[in-house]
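Feature request, filed as a ticket because there's no other form

It would be nice if the structure record came with a short human-readable summary line next to the tokens. Right now we just get the raw output. Example of a typical job, pasted below so the devs can see what we mean:
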Amino acid sequence: MPRISAFYGIVIVMYFADHPPPHFHARYGEHEAQILIATGEVLEGFLPRRALNLVQEWTALHRSELVTDWNLAEREEPLVSIEPLP
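Raw output as currently delivered:
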């Protein structure tokens, strides 16, 4: 479960060979959600509204990098870290 980014207490990870659709996992405290790369919407789980808004903003900024990491994860190749929100 490689960590690809972290900001404001939110940790972003992606699992190797994870199930479709393309998504990543965002953790904030005791909360965790699977976030769709294409839309930034929650696939499964829960994040508090403020944390979700930050994750969705970050997703919009880094969508192409997330797609690249998803493709690498499917091939179980090393993932590339993505810049956090400033």
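Something like this underneath would help us a lot:
The helical segments are 49-74.
The beta strands are 3-7, 10-13, 23-28, 31-36, 42-45.
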